[in-house]
């Protein structure tokens, strides 16, 4: 069985970890600021909605974090890689359980990643594999947090501005923080996948910029359309979300996702994918992704168009006179521009185009929309026995980038699917 090794932890990984914590704290701080503003002004309904979104998103992320932790601690050599004795590791399990219950598990993962990264990069200590392991899990958790909290809150902030016809400084700060968080986490997730596969060309900054732009240009009109629709039919937005979310979950189930290690965990993952699909495309299954992507974007364009037309018909002509026409023209054009940037990325800025020679012919088709597969990495393999391998992100990366059919493990079992944006 051919196995790949981890990318070594570098100063760039450390910088991304620090920026991830800063973005997380900025977004969390702006949310608290907005919540306090709502409470002080007597807007208890919006205060409750905002706090509810923060709590539900936090619970969701803590659940993923804890499920992964309970699985990881059963891996051979995990306690040795983390530097804990058997007794100490047992105490750490209890402490970790308490932190997750107190909704602090995600933050502690950030702190652990920074501390481990500092020891590896600055002090040149051992543990590079564990540092990379932590950063890859964080990239996925941040992505979940982004679409379960930041995107809904961004929609809420825009909705409040539209309904009150006024914008406070704190609202602009919250919108800017949420938008930055969404765009940054999507790019960070993609860069994390590429860094996991050492045979792949690292994504240059120019390529990352285009990737950032096309995601931003596709997500922003979707969020704005949802907020506009909610401003005229607030009672219908919840029904709209639940209806589409249910359909998306069924679609994920129909694609036979296999990301988690249990049936209950898999349904939790499918429910989360349904939330992500409400705002953005996210591939979750093997095979040619072009058809599924085309179906999704066609549906998204149609649904967004219906939302905008509904808003135009039910809006207050006097109150919206100053911006209605510009929005109804700008938002569809922005989405179209996002699709053009996406095509530009794959035609001119995809990292595979920066590599003239490919040693492995299977790497020549380095396209997310190709037939994909993955090679399961085993902690028992002699070639990698000294490394702590993150199976989840290994599934993501190799399933994202390879072209062959599913390759079985040495024990005859097949691998899991890998989602990608």
TrEMBL record:
Q: What is its main location?
A: membrane
- UniProt membrane topology term: Multi-pass membrane protein
* Keywords, in A-Z order: Apoptosis, Cell membrane, Membrane, Transmembrane, Transmembrane helix
Its annotated compartments are:
Cell membrane; Membrane
Q: Which residues cross the membrane?
A: 9-26, 46-69, 170-189, 209-230, 237-255, 267-285, 294-312, 324-345
* Catalyzed chemical reaction(s): a 1,2-diacyl-sn-glycero-3-phospho-L-serine(in) = a 1,2-diacyl-sn-glycero-3-phospho-L-serine(out)
Q: Does the keyword Transmembrane helix apply?
A: yes
Record Pfam families: XK-related
Task: Name the GO terms of the biological process aspect.
Answer: apoptotic process involved in development; engulfment of apoptotic cell; phosphatidylserine exposure on apoptotic cell surface
Q: Which GO terms describe its cellular component?
A: plasma membrane
Q: Which PANTHER family match?
A: XK-RELATED PROTEIN, XK-RELATED PROTEIN 8
Family per record: Belongs to the XK family.
Quote the protein name from its UniProt record: XK-related protein
Q: Which organism is it from?
A: Monopterus albus
